[in-house]
Amino acid sequence: MKISILPVLLFLPVCASANIRPPAPILRHNLSPEVLDRIFDGKVVPVENTPVREQRKILYAESESPPAAPRFALDLDTIPVEFRDTIAGFDRLPHKNQEETPEQVAKINDMIRRQNQGRRFGKIKEWTYDGRPNEPIWTCLAHAAASANDWWAQQLGRSLPQHESRSHGGNETGLDPTLLELEYFRRSRISSGNGDPDFVVPPKFIQKDPVRNTGFPYEPRGYAKLLTEKKSYTVKDPISGKVFTYKPEMSAMEGEWKQLFTNSVFRGRTPLKYAKVLKEGLQRWGIAYVQLEHTEHPRWPGAHAVAVVGYFCMEQGERLIHCSTNQTDKDWGEKTYFIAHDSFGKFPASLPRTANSASAYRAVRITSIDQAIVFPHGLKLDVSPRPGVAGAWGLRVTNTAGIDVIPSAVKALGADGIELTVQSEADGSFFMEGEKGDALRIYIEAPYYHARNGLGRGFVIELDDALRSAVPIRQD
Q1: What does each of the 476 residues of the chain score in pLDDT, given as a tens digit?
Q2: 3-class DSSP state for residue 25?
Q3: Verdict on whether the full-model pTM lies above 0.90
Q4: What is the distance of C-alpha 207 from the center of its chain?
C-alpha cells in the first residue's frame, strides 16, 4: 500500500504534466513562434491549423528530454494487428475530452457568480482558463473510471448514454464522469480526518487544480468502490445546482474490483515483473483502470489515470516483435508497451498536443505505471440435450447479460472425479458426453471472465432432458 506523506504531496500534480513547471508535451521545433504564442497566450489553436509532425512513427516523445517515467503519443495504426494484443471492442470505446474551453470556463463562471451572490463565506472559486498544452481540468481519474465502465457496458450489450461535458460543454457518450466525481468529493473528509482514505482530496494549499482552483480527487480505489457499489445516491452540483442521481444499474460492474499491483514510495519504480501481471490481467479481466507514475518522480504517488486496452512489444529502433518471444520479467518489463485509451478527444498522434486536444492513445511501459485495477465479471452456463444425438449435451456460455461468450477451455468432471470428453465445434460451441442424472462439475475459462482469484469459473449441474442452468461455484 502506498504511504501518503506531506513532502510528496507538496509537489503532486495529477492528471497533467508531472513537472513542477510542466514542459510542453510537444517538440518546440515542430511549431513556429507564432503558433507557440497563440498556444501559450490562452487562445486555442484549431486542430486543422496545427502543423503535423514531419515523420510518421509509432511513438512520439512528449518532451525533448525523456523523463524518468515517460509517456508517448501512440500512432496505433502503424502497428499491424499481429503484433498487438487488444481487448475486444476497444476501438468502439468513445474518447471523452477533459480539456476545458474558454467558452465553457466563461459559462461556468457565470453560474459560480450567481451561486456566490449574497454569500460572505464559502464562496466557490471561479475557474481559470489555462491555454497551455497538458494543463486540463484534473478530472482524469473520473474520466478513466467512466471509460472502464463504458467498455464493460458495451460487452454486456448496453447502449451508452449521452451527457453534457463539464469540461467543454459539448455532447459526449458514456457514463458521466461528473456524477462520479461529485460523489467522490462528497465522501471526502480530509479537513476532519474522518473519511475513507480511498476518497482523499489533498488540500488546495498543497496542490490545486489549475483550472478549478480547488483540491482534486486523487485515489483510483475510491472510484473503483463507486463503480461496484450496490446502493443508490443523489448528489448536488454546487455550481449548477443540478441534482445528479446514481442507481446501481447505471454501472456495468458486478460488485467486484481487484487491484493488480501498486507502487510504493519505498521503491524507485514499479518492478519489471508487473508487466506480465498487467498483461495477464487484461486477458483475464479485460480493461484495466490504471494510474500512471509522476513522470519526473516515479517514487511519488501516482498522477494521470487512463484505461489500458492492450499491449505490444518493441525493441530499440521501433522494431516490433511478437510478445511471445519474451522469456523473462526483464524482457516483459523493457519491451512491453501498454496501450492507454486517453481522455483528450480522438485525435491522431501525428498532431502535436494543443490546449484542447491530444493523441487518442498513449503508450507506456510498466515503469511508468503506478497501479492497476480490474473489474471481475461472471459467466452463465446452460446445458441442454443435443438434438438427435443420444448421450450428448450442448453447452452455452454467456455473460450475465446473456451475450454469448466463446470459452478458451472447458473441462467436465463426473461425480467420481473422472474427466468427461468435451469437444468443440468450428463455431466455438462445445458439447460433451453424459447420461441423464449425471452430477457434473464444469470448469470454464474465457477471456475477460475469470474469477477474482485468477481462475476460471466453476459450475455444478445434474444432466436432465430439458435445458438447465448450471449453478456457479463460489470462488473467493
Answers
A1: 443 443 334 334 455 443 333 333 333 334 444 443 333 333 344 444 555 555 679 999 988 888 889 999 999 999 999 999 999 999 999 999 999 999 999 999 999 999 999 998 889 999 999 888 878 999 999 999 999 999 999 999 999 999 999 999 999 999 999 999 999 999 986 544 566 889 988 888 888 899 999 999 989 999 999 999 999 999 999 999 999 999 999 999 999 999 999 987 777 789 999 999 999 999 999 999 999 998 887 777 789 999 999 999 999 999 999 999 999 999 999 999 999 999 999 999 988 888 888 999 999 999 999 999 999 999 999 999 998 888 899 999 999 999 999 999 999 999 888 999 999 988 888 999 889 999 999 999 999 999 999 999 999 999 998 889 999 998 87
A2: coil
A3: no
A4: 24
CA atoms within 13 A on the CB side of 414: 12
Question: Nearest Cα to 146, choosing from 75, 79, 93, 67?
Answer: 93
Residues composing the chain: 476
Q: Beta partners for 205?
A: none
Which residues face 163 on adjacent strands? 172
At 227, list the grid cell: 463503480
Question: Residue 341: beta bridge partners?
Answer: 307, 361
How far is the C-alpha of 16 from the C-alpha of 96, rounded, in Å? 15
Domains of the chain (ranges; CATH) run 6-374 (no CATH), 379-472 (2.60.40.760)
